[in-house]
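notes to self, project folder thing:

trying the whole complex as one job this time. last attempt i did each chain seperately and stitching them together was a nightmare. two parts in total, labels are on each line so i dont mix them up again. if this works i'll redo the older ones the same way
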Amino acid sequence: MSASFSKVSRRDFLKIASASAIALAGHGLISQFTYGDADHDDELEGVLWEKAPCRFCGTGCSALVGVIGNDIVAVKGDPESPVNRGLLCIKGYHLLKIHSAADRLKKPLIRVSPKSVTSGAKFREATWDEALELISERFQSALQEHGPESIAMFGSGQWTIWEGYAAAKLLKGGLRSNNLDCNARHCMASAVAGFMTTFGLDEPMGCYDDFENADAFILWGANMAEMHPMLWARVSQRKQSAAGATIINLTVLSNRSSVMADREIIFKPQSDLAIANGIANILVQSGRVNSDFISNHVVFQTGKENIGYGLEDNSTFQEEASVVSFDDFKSHLATYTLEYVQQISGVTPDILSELADIYGNPNTKVMSLWTMGVNQHTRGTWMNNLIYNLHLLTGKISEPGNSPFSLTGQPSACGTTREVGTFSHRLPADMVVTNAEHRAIAEGIWSLPAGTIPAVPGYHAVEMMRAIDRGEIKVFWSLCANPYQDYANLNRYRKAAQEKDVFIIVSDVYPNLSSEVADVILPTAMWVEKEGSYGNAERRTHFWKKMIQPPGESRSDLWQIVEVGKKLGLGHLFQYDPQAYPLPQEQLISDASETAGFYMEKALWEEYRLFGKDKGHDLAPFELYHQTRGLRWPVVDGQETRWRYNEKYDPYVKSGEGINFYGNEANGGKAIIWFRPYEPPAESPDTDYPFWLCTGRVLEHWHSGTMTRRVPSLYKAYPHATAALHPDDAAELALSTGDRIRITSRRGSVEVLVEIGARVKPQKGMVFVPWFDEDVMINEATLDAFCPISKQTDYKKCAVKLEKL
Amino acid sequence: MKRILVKEQFCIGCRLCEVYCRLQRSESGELLRAYKREASLPLSGARVEERGPVAISVRCQNCEEPACVYACLGGALKRDADSGLVVWEEEQCLGCWSCILACPYGAIRKDTRRGKIARCDLCSGEEVPACVAGCPNEALEYIES
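result (full assembly):
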């Protein structure tokens, strides 16, 4: 190493020179935490290294966690991981410190202050038994007096797979209530609805191997450089490789992904619908489509139009699908001329043609990538459909590099919420509660009497909060989520929490804006304090072992769900044969297994596996996931599947079929190309509220910031949310960086400091505010309009006014 | 390749290396004007660490196995095959701060104003780097190694 060059031994040099690194490492034992490097292992005596997927975004990076005794002393990228190949992003490296902030919740707490008090509310410590008894009493009285519709659970895409599975079993199979929804509704519901309506099966057909095979990357509302940095590194490597690659960043604001892009295309909010249709129109008009693929693997449909925005309570949606011919489809698209698209979106004809050239060139392998810009959209399902249309028209799908790829927000939005089905309408393995056959399968696996699972979907996330406001929900349990900071139109829902007769239970790691409205707070064990399992965006299921004991009396969500079940007389749902599932040897035993006396996680896994077996959702036996860096389902005969629907890679496609979209069995395995028109946003700027408000995340912070803002270096790197503005707007309002403004919508207002020329540069007429900061409650201004099909909230578009303070 | 040798026995922690570095990167090249008038004066690529009587001027060591290059997500940091030096392309920098965490010397800094990193480039183009030229105690030496 070059340290010898400086005539100071490396060890001595580090002692004096890397005070900052030591401060980051916390325990002072390890002066750096970077990718695996055998050269440094001499400094790490006595450290036990175990793998675990990162608990932040949906990329699914694997970290190596170094433990001495009951302390995590280091975290480094896992060189054996095919996802992140030894690297981590700045949040990943700081996994080290997320569990150990001073105000960690360690005992159950019961509210003492009246419900009207939020900030500074008093709670008293309680025993687990007292807290569980109180929760059980409240559940029972709600069930007896108001029925199963009066209870609700709100879970998370950060739950482990078995936590989501246990929650679904308890609510739907035990308490006979479908009122189980999760924060993935705000995150990936439009992606799910897009997959289901187009392919009949959820989750991407491709995988991350597409990054090394694509010639062009088209970003549709995804700031990957900040939100999926490790995947962006793979895009960057591809671009800089001999093969090269084109990157197009379609966005409503200039962001860090534009830095590496060959072209940044700024469009007007909501007009992505018109752009996608415009590209499709050019392709069909100029005949640059794959006719063989279309005639063999695709059908065309139209659906209901003018579908509303879900702004009224209890709004419903019923699709009105009709099969149409390719010619009908073409004539629908004909409206989307170059001029019309430019008028709606601001994108000029030459740029639109350039996009069509990329999709239409049969020799260019195209990967389309999207996240919240497309999903958090009042026409989110439609936008997902429209991106698939471009790949289906050109046959660019289900093969290496040709990949419409829906990026995921949360670490197990796929593995837990989507695959297990912790949504109010879903059951495991893409089944739904409205289908009698599906309910019968679930009741069979769960050994329940026929008719146990209700046939009507429960409240979806937004409607759940509205039902609390209407007084219909009497017990609300939130786990691994922060709904009272995360919901749009927050004032209505926080007010309801304080004023309505609802008993709120919050299970969390740290006090937050949700725990301050709770009646009972349950302290939760996190990440490697329990045994876990996540499923990432490329269908990769990945496990980790428990590595340290949780602090104080905190318990995993799995333990909490099972114990509440037991108190409610539903312990049999979680009783498995100790002979078949003996406790594991030579590893720490999780709280759930220890209390049960058998290997609870394995028992739940093996039961859960029955749902997807032979249905395209096959999962491997339990042990295999501890031995590998994850496997991509369907896992058939121990082999993972990289590209689905293609006979070369997918065991479900028979030899000679080529491509088979077997999720759509009813139409003979064909994908559906939907005609979906442009429809305007729910709320647009006007003379009273002249600005667009767009919200989002930043690189350094995860979601509502409850963990990352407690890590000193991440807090220091980005302490507070600021409002980013276009310089022309700032000049017009005489605003400069550091000025305080009030952002007001029809629903609420928030004060925030202005930052001009920040890393996000909005288009003229738009203000961008990230939502991680509990001191800048931007969701008091946002609008709870949602996609009527997916019920996913649009956090990206509403109208506000700005005042200088 | 030529690199900067740091002789900690002569370093008195005066921080003039930091001052000369920033001056070298300033628009005006004049000390008072640079510090008083230039709102966007770039950060220094050198940084003085002190503990008790021991002080040392820290900067990029141009490691043969550069952790920062391996950690760089955007491909902005590279090891130049000819010179062996670690080079940085500003336009490629995403500001993801991964290299800052990876560097064992703490030699890379965060320039939050620019959303980029700041690091020593050995005053590329100069015969002798500014910090070496300005060090009053000859604690820094620019030599072939």
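what i see at first glance: Residues 1-42 of chain A have pLDDT under 50 and may be disordered.
need to look closer tmrw
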